[in-house]
Amino acid sequence: MTKSVLPMATINGDTQSYLIFFFLSIIISRFLLRNFFKIPSKIPYLHLPPSPPALPFIGHLHLLRLSVWKSLRNLSTNKYGSLLYLRLGSRPVLVVSSPAHVAEIYKTNDIAFSAKPYSPFEDMILFGNTGFIVAPYGDYWKFMKKLCMTELLGSRQIERSRGVRCEEITSFLKNLLKKSERQECVDMIEELSKLMNNAICRMVMSNRCSGEDDEAQRVRKLVIESFDLTVKAAIATMVGPLKRLVSWWNREKLEGVLREFDNLFEKIMKEHEEVRVKRSDNGDEKEDRDLMDILLNIYYDKNTECKISRNQIKAFILDLFIAGTDTSANTMQWVMAELINNPHIFKKLRHEIDSIVGSNTRVQESDISNLHYLQAVVKESMRLHPAAPAIPRECREDCQVSGFDIPKGTAVIINAYSIMRDPNLWDNPEDFIPERFLNEQNNLSEAKIQNFNFLPFGGGRRTCPGSNMALSIIHLTIATLVQCFDWKIVGDKVKVNMESKPGFALGMLHPLMCIPVVRFDPFVALD
User: Fold this and answer.
1) Residues 122, 128: contact at Cβ < 8 Å?
2) What's the chain's average pLDDT?
3) Residue 409 has pLDDT above 60, yes or no
4) In a designed cystine with 416, which of 26, 311, 437, 455 is the match (CB 3.0 to 4.6 A)?
5) CB proximity list for 23: less than 8 A, separation 6 or greater
């Protein structure tokens, strides 16, 4: 799960055509405006950070390639430094690529940068801007953040839902064992996405999102469509006066996606409310509460410090699906790809599992705290392949960073991808070396996190509140896959292709396809 992060998305052919169309529209509209209206300058002189030469109308958009975070890294590294001011169409953007400047944003000026970039779709969508991820910094956001840390995604709820995660990974493992028996190829991202969908569904609403109606596929389809719309929303913020046209262009698709989510969540809420009434009549108190139970208790609590609406409950659940499904699935796919490409690390991790857990005992979530190399492997993969390579913020008020003026309304992109591959911060930064995160080596792990060298979940007030929940299932799933199977790459390939998708997110361009070969079947061992 994720975090206060950008949702996973890719720029496909349709979106590229969309970009070209709107860039041409910008040029035409600006030409007409400049010829028929006098537009006075309202911007006073500001001491802005370094900036490359810009083109009329489009600003610096011509400098970006499909892999946005790599383009931003090249601009910062090659010439302009770690604090870079860009204009993407009509949108001013501050690009941050060093831990020192990140510290100024996450610590010194955290309140000033505690907003998320505005989407032009917010006044159209079903739940408005009520989602926790995009909510403005204020009383509601503070209340929900506190609720996340203490109830919804805190240690108490992680412990409550441990059985759910174990059951879902058991089901996932049994499915892989069947595929292994048939020597069937496994599409890892598909299987891992189903695992995450099912786990989130059960932690949220005590129901699995799979079965005869294949709700897992339905939810995944909706999430993918939501990602595509998120990319278009991000693009729309750059087109100035044409934002409303962008919103109109996507209205039907947007409303359709949100309507399906609304129907699903309303159905689940009503089912929970019916059970709630029956329990109240019988004087029963449910101990094993899911997230929907907790949210409904707050919804009906007249004495709560902050009243929440049904739409806010739905928006929060939607945030969990969008931020938690593909981010965690992609993280696990990258981990497995790195392990397959580095068999000596795979062997070392398996040896740790066997020595701590035993060769005839299935790894459990309670074992994870003792599997230090496993934790280092996951951290190293997140360093190289962060789910959110570019972390968005927005400046809420005029302020300064390193002596430069940052105007209110400036979007901020923290280039976590660049920071976590910076050769000045990491030895051999392009290599997969989990040992760098072992605590025995002068507490390197904690030092990197505290100094903002390591940013897989963001930082500051809007750091991802679901990081511990996400890591709990990521660690156990990876340990299970390593303990129980050897993995054979499909075809004649010697190594997994590690090329990443273009776009704002960091997924694998070529899905990891491999055949599981049983090494340890815990169900046979138990018999």
Assistant:
1) yes
2) 82
3) yes
4) 455
5) 57, 58, 61, 89
